[in-house]
Design brief:
Layout: E1 5-8, H1 14-23, E2 25-28, H2 35-42, E3 46-52, H3 59-63, E4 70-74, H4 83-89, E5 92-94, H5 101-116, H6 119-127, E6 146-150, H7 154-165, E7 169-173, E8 184-186, H8 189-195, E9 198-201, H9 215-221, E10 226-229, H10 238-247, E11 252-255, H11 266-269, E12 274-276, H12 285-303
Parallel strand pairs: 1-2, 1-3, 3-4, 4-5, 6-7, 6-9, 7-8, 9-10, 10-11, 11-12
């Protein structure tokens, strides 16, 4: 019997990719120069899609796959999946309802320590053989500093717990005040940026939050302030951030996400006062293995005519 053909939109956890290629005929979108043209070429044969929270699948792409029966998302958020188009076609949609709040908060705390204590700069200093010449200049401590969290959701709350343990105070900005926390609320982001020593971005990427952290907010953060982004690259105005880091209008930045990842602007790579990691907030073995089991289980169940493990109610 012919194996079902599936489309994978982005390079994913390699053991999962290997397992999928053993059981299905796989079409890799990330290997081709023209995504839409490729999908239109193979689309008539595709019965399943494996996508991610980063790129999802659009209505136009769904329309190019007339036989697609299931869309399985490697993650929880379906913001980049056109669920309305899937619903119109009667396509099953699944996700992985895991929580990434704890590992993402860990990365956020790590980036705070790295940029405020200048750890990546210090490591390069040692490797360059400069330590014998003179001591490395001091960074800044966390104790007594004010941490401003942009979006006090599940991830933001986990970050708050961690920075408090390091002696920092917490404040937050969002669309509304939370009634179950005592942290200071700032209705105006610029006002919070002016007050905070460190600004951490954890809010969702939406049309309203695009370029939310712009030149005005970075100016308010000031030459002794630090920016940490563990949300999405689109929330930060990247040219404005590069200008602020280059000119010293802010002290430093720690980035787990970028606007056009995995491509990194060379201007950022040239700066000592920025630490960049390759979107590893949720990249821990425990979550990757859970997602592997979920994706395989949902696809196997669907093509066997059995109930899905984690169906999304559209």
């Amino acid at each position: 019997m012919d194996r079902p053909e599936i489309l994978i939109t982005r390079q994913i956890y390699f053991p999962l990719l290997q397992a999928l290629e053993r059981e299905y005929t796989v079409h890799r979108v990330w290997d081709v120069p023209d995504r839409q043209a490729f999908i239109e070429a193979v689309g008539p044969r595709v019965r399943g899609v494996v996508t991610t929270v980063v790129d999802g699948v659009s209505a136009r792409e769904i329309d190019a796959m007339p036989k697609v029966e299931i869309i399985a998302c490697f993650g929880k958020s379906l913001a980049k999946v056109d669920v309305a188009a899937a619903k119109r076609r009667g396509i099953a949609v699944t996700n992985v309802p895991d929580s990434v709040a704890v590992p993402v908060a860990d990365i956020a705390l790590g980036l705070i320590v790295i940029v405020m204590r200048r750890m990546t700069e210090a490591e390069r200093y040692v490797r360059a053989g400069k330590w014998p010449e003179k001591p490395f200049p001091p960074g800044r401590g966390l104790t007594g500093k004010l941490c401003g969290i942009v979006g006090l959701g599940e991830i933001g709350r986990e970050i708050a717990r961690r920075v408090e343990a390091c002696g920092m105070s917490v404040c937050y900005h969002g669309p509304r005040r939370k009634t179950d926390v005592a942290y200071r609320f700032f209705a105006e982001l610029e006002e919070m940026a002016r007050a905070a020593d460190c600004l951490i971005v954890t809010c969702p990427a939406t049309p309203e939050t695009q370029n939310l952290i712009d030149a005005r907010i970075l100016e308010a953060l000031g030459p002794e302030g630090y920016l940490i982004n563990v949300a999405r690259g689109s929330i930060v105005d990247e040219p404005a951030l590069i200008a602020a880091l280059t000119s010293g209008r802010i002290a430093g930045a720690g980035l787990d996400v970028l606007r056009d990842e995995p491509r990194v602007p060379p201007e950022l790579l040239a700066l000592d006062n920025v630490a960049i990691v390759p979107h590893i907030g949720s990249n821990i073995m425990e979550i990757r293995e859970e997602r592997l089991t979920n994706i395989l289980g949902n696809l196997r169940a669907h093509f066997a005519g059995q109930p899905l493990l984690t169906p999304v109610d559209l």
